[in-house]
Amino acid sequence: MTAEPNIFLILLVIIPLMAAPICVLTRNANVAWSISMAVAWAVLGIAIKLVMELSAHDKVLYYRIGGWDAPWGIEYALDKVGGLVILVVASIGALTLTYAKRSVEKEITSERIYLFYAMLMLCISGLLGIAITGDAFNLFVFMEISSLSSYVLISLGKDKRALTSAFNYLIMGTIGATFYIIGVGMMYMMTGTLNIADLSSILPAVADTRTILVALAFLTVGISLKLALFPLHMWLPGAYAFAPSVVTIFLAATATKVSLYVLIRIFFTMFGRIDVFETFPLQPVLFGMALAAMFIASLAAIWQQNIKRMLAYSSIAQVGYMVLGIAIATEAGLTGGIIHIFNHALIKGSMFMAVGAMAFGLGVTTINDMAGIGRRMPLVMAAFVVGGLGLIGIPLTVGFVSKWALVSAALDAEMWPLAALILLSSLLAVIYVWRVVEVAYMRPSPENAKQPVQVPFSMLAPMWVLALASVWFGANATFTMDLAHSAAGHLMEGF
């Protein structure tokens, strides 16, 4: 692969980063939303351009800050797996901003709305920066930009429990970041570099030292906390349940996916020239945590009454599927884990948008509140059902593509019991999705049921874009599968 300089990489981060203080200076909700909308769609345009370049040519795009060559300067680098991640973050960001205006006006006090848009711009900038930076310490900086803004976004919810949830996330997120930076410090002590490409070259010479073993452990635990990998997930249900709907939509579709990307970078790029699954006892640990997430979180989802909390536990289970693909440690397994980053973003984005629309129209927060909602809000509930079918893995949905890739990878690796467990865990999704469908369509509306407030087109359109995309990319997965397969191939080679 050859590298080629590209100024659009720095623009991808700088534009939303500069938009954040401008939103604060305006102190006006409408102006802040207009600026954020323009920036989000501009960023999406840049992301699409970069992904098209990556798809057309087998190369890495890069940009060196200040013209300083790595490892002395900070380098931004984008390959195909990073391209998939920026496409997810940018597209979800643009659709979320389109959806946000009316929902935010209802769920966040008016004097704080401009701060919401400023924090969302910071969060987008941080997540995009994580995906393109080629420096391990710079990755930590972007991780903290996205995390700190996320804490504020969650705390903006009107429910007092939002503050508690934000505080819990802050504590767990800070522990995770501390573990990560300790791991980076240990690697720097042994290699004298923070550049990820340099680390990849130098680490094999010191891979058998206790310091590097401990560094890998710190990195894995730190990112697993950010990823909400079972049993390090306790911050996530409250954060998703009590944050404003728009915040839940954005974080559920992007934050954990970017954290998974970091885990992939650690295992297959930083340690890419070392067989980490042979050298270190990682595989059984990851298998255990992933399977526990798939089953225990799915079982927990079945018993939830709060609809957002149910979907939060479902997200923890889906993280398990992604990590399972990594733990299989083959090109096919890694392809399954990578493709689920994209597919799960479509599914959860559309489902949380539907839940936000229900909250807007009827103030729905629990499953029992949804009696008869399928008839009262047919468009909204239909989008929720499409997402639910994706969670189960019904053919012609993106969920089927992900699970087929993971089952195929398990069978190729002669892990027959693992393939059976993937299929069995999918049946649990049938139960908690059916609970909602049964209440929404088969229970009569209460006698004193009020008519829902009309959900504006600006909320319905992004929701259905994601719902239809989950069907489109389920029926025609060639582009995303090719991108994921190519990315997995390069990662398995240690790039």
Defining key terms:
495 residues, mainly alpha, 3-stranded mixed β-sheet, 77% helix, 3% strand
The H/E string reads EHHEEHHHHHHHHHHHHHHHHHH
Estimated helix fraction: over 70%
What is the CA-based Rg, rounded? 21 Å
Biggest beta sheet attributes: 3 strands, mixed
Overall 3D form: globular
End-to-end C-alpha gap:
9 Å
Poorly predicted parts: none
Strand content: under 5%
Number of E strands: 3
Strands side by side in the biggest sheet: 1-2-3
Averaged pLDDT: 87
Structural class label: mainly alpha
Summarize the structure in words.
By secondary structure, the protein is mostly helical. The chain has a domain at 288-489. The chain has 20 helices and three strands. It has helices spanning 8-26, 29-56, 80-107, 113-132, 136-155, 161-191, 196-206, 210-227, 236-242, 245-270, 276-279, 283-302, 307-328, 331-362, 373-376, 378-392, 398-412, 416-442, 457-475, 478-492; strands at residues 2-5, 59-64, 75-78. The chain has a three-stranded mixed beta sheet.
